[in-house]
Design the sequence.
């Protein structure tokens, strides 16, 4: 789950990472009196909000309220600004980049840092990026901090300062089950290092350990949110064919085969290993609400039998009929029985993915 | 011979008294697997499908000599179950459970490495060597004994592909689902190494998907170390960036993990990449 | 460093292990008013103090003061009682044993427990002892606690209770760099589990991380304490030959060879790898204070040269002559030069350990 | 061939700018060791005995291809130095430093196991293969090339024994001081295994001492796995219980770790145990 900047900074603060003293507002009149200059930061989950005009400065109450009015409700790349984080403007001597991620290749964590901060790390050349895997059982050791200090060209005192940062970031990363904990820019101020921005993704599978964290679901469409609540793996796409299949890999493959024949999927819905009629019903309920022209059901029967899934489908559409046609492809265990059940409900069922895909594309009005 | 499991496999089922544990104990026995014990804390003395249940893995190992384990326990307790198996000397721990926290996965994989054990999964369908043993939830009827080694990140998609191989008369030595999570105990490379060494395996099928760079790394490995013909299918060509396609690992983000990159890397080292899953059987047939 | 019971219980308390509410006294009049019954426990580092009469109960102030008077100053197996730990008497339902030690064979920690508490664990038969190695990088996991609960025949609630104990003991063991953390007996009271006794040894090499812990040196003789302060590896023994050698293994071997010829060492003094005259001087200063009849110097010259050690010896005895004769065995690099230097100072130097040992035994008046 | 070190050893000295580091860099070079790099944080760019100094082990490895390391850094920083070496891909880390906290020792030994590296020590004199290389602080002049493998918990006592072998005309393949601390990276059994496999080693000398049960475990191992003749000396026969004899591990406590028990165990599996250190050379001579 991706967190808003202010939530990420809360976590950082709790784990000892220095962040600017800020507060969150939802209305312009919540701005508190201030001296000097403040920064108003739109709280959205998408990157590049600075360039999109989502971050502004103000040096008087009047100006601040005007800016807040302008930012709140603004649309940034499809995300609506509902909250602003208000912080004093920081005096920045230098900007760095630092993050810890789960590294798939090494199956360990990875510390990434660069003296080129404030820009997307992807745009920094490799030789300017410090990378060290951190084993989860041993954690960050002093030699990693030393190597980082040398790489970034820091003096002894600064290395000590950034060391505290790394240990604290590791603490936040591990205790909060992060997929990613990123500080960009990590800024050097006259008072030392500070996290000027913060990005934090909590591993979805670990949320049961972090019930105190406010749920963020902005990154999902309303329909995706509904599916998540029901525990259904569902992604909304921009085509017009509603794909349901069993298994993530098979569902992806179904999308790909449709595309080969000129079709475009409007949904990715993975039934998983279930043939529970209730679950199948819920899945068809979700699909029914998506803006699609045809449903493409692709089932490979293994542990889940074709006929039980077919029965579930028929029950589901009897309970709440779909407004669009269904094209099915049924293969595997009890294939014939499954086809028969679907046929009786008026659903054409194919054996090969190719034939079914072609039919779905046709019914969807494509190619 | 087959890789990882064979007739010497003595299987322990962790979480045997649950719904999944019970069902698959039966299915694995039907496949011919020697299921010797089950573990569910507090259920010692019961039996499931004729298999004795113990409170702890150590008790089960001491009483039955189990050397392989399959884990069905719920995600919040999976790491503990896997560590318990490793500490009791189990050499191969097949972890079926999905939604295991990724930090738990990292820890258990590191611990297994320290103790010289192998984990398959988490979030995987396990593995099957037709005619020998199955340690997993793959459907029994899709397999046929033969000489193709299959390694895959997927579940159902793998069954589909294996089934099409079987229908085409192409048997399999071992089929391994390594799981689609970001951190797994066994990688494509690990399996390529085992298949390359296995005298019974003549050809290798790799089923990948978007996310990460495991397929690209596998391509590098194939170039240097694999002499047997490799066939591949990569799912997710049309998945949009930033959207997680079911599996926790299946996401194209920050320009990494695209199907194009994987397909290109595999083709460049001579791997035949299929456009649709069932095409793999055809590609193999052409070469026979 | 072995801690007194009250220090060990302080550590336990800090790490969340329930211990009786007690306090330490050095004078009988420090006993505080109490209700019910109290136990007065002599604080000595030796085991078996209960059987030696070092633990007494009292149920009135008068009785308590009388008992305290009797215990304070008492001699228990050569250790003088200087402090008493005063605790309320606990209602004990059952006694258990629990410890965590550094296990050499596995190179990990080991959790040891038994339902046979209150007796020396060495006297408990193997099949009644629970043993599980705990890897230092992963720590105690729930499955270990479950296995322990089954082994001890505890119910679910009790297993939960003992689990808290194990986690807390692990915390104390690792954070405090223990060689051994032992609770014997670990008692089940109507209020739950509690550490009735406590034994704790902090790893000597880790003391630099635990400067806040009061130094306990009671287990050493005054001369051993002096040597420790000077950083000299010195052990006082009950023979009359003062052995100095370089290297712990060689020093032990020297003791053994002496014994072969009927002699008995009065000291074990390992010079280590040093040939610094100041250090050699200090070593001879220590030896000079030990009740011995002859000094046996055994040097194998390698990295340390025989002649430099010989020079150091001569300097040392010139500065402060020994009252007893020195027999030397010198072997290795610059052996001849070393022998010459010693000979000029009136010290007979042999090449073989056997010859030198025989001479030392003779000069010591033995065999 | 010799075990663990040979002409391919490219040695890195951690803590090279300290007194011990400097002295032994020279002595190891004199022995013929290929010392390629040193590390002392903050001293990059300097040289010691002609050896370039780097700030980090990774820098040193990247620049020189070092594959073995010797650690002279002070005890409070030893674990960090060892972990740094392991993370940089060093395969053999010889840890000379004494007084390393035992919990640090446990952690670094576990970590090495996870990463497939070997630690010798801590608190050990290192190892020497005459005619090939020395990675340690053992005195150069006591060695002679030959076919006896020596493994010992001691320092000076080992030099004494090796010297007596050399004086008797008996050369050594490799001499390894594994250290006398309670937790060490390499055990008697590890070395027995290597010596048994090494074609250049014909006889094995084991120098043990009181404390622990490593010698008893070695006896078990010899019984099952060692075919070459083994000779032993055990120090501390007359050490009183409860008194630590210098080495952190050398203590007889709770009735465990006595010299009698060790000698008995070794004799029972056919090991010839010497009464005094120099007798080992005589026992070997009798067998020649």
Sequence:
């Amino acid at each position: 789950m991706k967190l808003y900047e202010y939530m990420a900074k809360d976590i950082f603060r709790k784990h000892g990472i220095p962040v600017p003293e800020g507060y969150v507002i939802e209305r312009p009149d919540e701005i508190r009196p201030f001296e000097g200059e403040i920064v108003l930061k739109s709280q959205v989950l998408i990157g590049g909000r600075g360039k999109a005009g989502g971050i502004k400065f103000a040096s008087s109450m009047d100006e601040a309220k005007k800016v807040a009015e302008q930012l709140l409700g603004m649309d940034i790349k499809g995300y609506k600004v509902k909250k602003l984080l208000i912080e004093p403007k920081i005096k920045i001597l230098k900007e760095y980049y630092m993050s810890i991620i789960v590294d798939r290749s090494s199956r360990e964590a990875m510390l990434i840092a660069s003296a080129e901060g404030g820009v997307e790390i992807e745009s920094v050349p490799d030789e300017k990026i410090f990378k060290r895997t951190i084993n989860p059982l041993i954690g960050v050791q002093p030699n990693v901090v030393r190597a980082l200090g040398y790489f970034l060209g820091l003096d002894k005192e600064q290395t000590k300062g950034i060391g505290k940062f790394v240990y604290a970031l590791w603490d936040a990363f591990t205790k909060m089950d992060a997929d990613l904990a990123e500080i960009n820019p990590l800024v050097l101020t006259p008072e030392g290092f500070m996290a000027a921005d913060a990005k934090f993704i909590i591993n979805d599978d670990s949320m049961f350990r972090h019930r105190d964290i406010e749920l963020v679901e902005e990154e999902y469409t309303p329909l995706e949110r509904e599916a998540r609540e029901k525990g259904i793996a569902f992604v909304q796409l921009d085509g017009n064919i509603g794909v349901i299949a069993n298994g993530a890999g098979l569902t992806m493959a179904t999308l790909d085969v449709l595309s080969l024949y000129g079709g475009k999927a409007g949904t990715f819905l993975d039934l998983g290993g279930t043939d529970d009629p209730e679950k199948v019903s819920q899945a068809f309920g979700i699909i029914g609400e998506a803006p699609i022209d045809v449903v493409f059901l692709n089932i490979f029967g293994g542990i889940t039998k074709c006929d039980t899934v077919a029965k579930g489908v028929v029950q589901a559409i009897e309970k709440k009929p779909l407004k669009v046609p269904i094209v099915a492809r049924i293969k595997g265990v009890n294939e014939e029985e499954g086809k028969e059940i679907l046929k009786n409900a008026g659903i054409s069922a194919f054996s090969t993915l190719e034939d079914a895909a072609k039919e779905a594309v046709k019914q969807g009005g494509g190619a | 011979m087959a890789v990882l499991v064979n007739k010497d496999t003595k299987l322990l089922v962790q979480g045997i008294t649950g719904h999944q544990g019970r069902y698959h104990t039966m299915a694995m026995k039907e496949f011919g697997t020697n299921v010797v014990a089950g573990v569910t804390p507090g259920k010692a003395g019961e039996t499931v499908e004729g298999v004795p249940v113990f409170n702890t893995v150590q008790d089960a190992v001491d009483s039955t000599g189990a050397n392989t384990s399959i884990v069905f326990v719920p995600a919040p307790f999976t790491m503990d179950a896997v560590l318990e198996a490793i500490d009791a000397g189990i050499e191969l721990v097949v972890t079926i459970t999905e939604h295991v926290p990724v930090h738990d996965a990292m820890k258990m994989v590191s611990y297994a490495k320290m103790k010289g054990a192998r984990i398959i999964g988490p979030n995987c369908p396990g593995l099957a060597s037709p005619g020998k043993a199955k340690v997993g939830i793959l459907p029994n009827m899709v397999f046929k004994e033969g000489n193709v080694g299959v390694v895959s990140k997927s579940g159902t998609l793998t069954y589909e592909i294996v089934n099409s191989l079987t229908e085409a008369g192409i048997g399999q030595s071992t089929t391994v689902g390594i799981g689609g999570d970001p951190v797994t105990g066994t990688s494509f490379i690990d399996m390529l190494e085992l298949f390359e060494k296995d005298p019974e395996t003549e050809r290798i099928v790799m089923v990948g998907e978007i996310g990460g760079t495991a397929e690209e790394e596998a391509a590098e490995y194939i170039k240097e170390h694999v002499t047997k013909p490799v066939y591949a299918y990569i799912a997710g060509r049309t998945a949009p960036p930033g959207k997680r396609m079911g599996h926790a690992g299946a996401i194209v983000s920050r320009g990494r993990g695209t199907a194009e990159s994987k397909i290109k890397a595999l083709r460049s080292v001579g791997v035949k990449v299929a456009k649709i899953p069932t095409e793999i059987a055809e590609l193999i047939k052409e070469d026979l």
Q: What stands out?
A: The first strand of chain A starts at residue 23 and ends at 25.
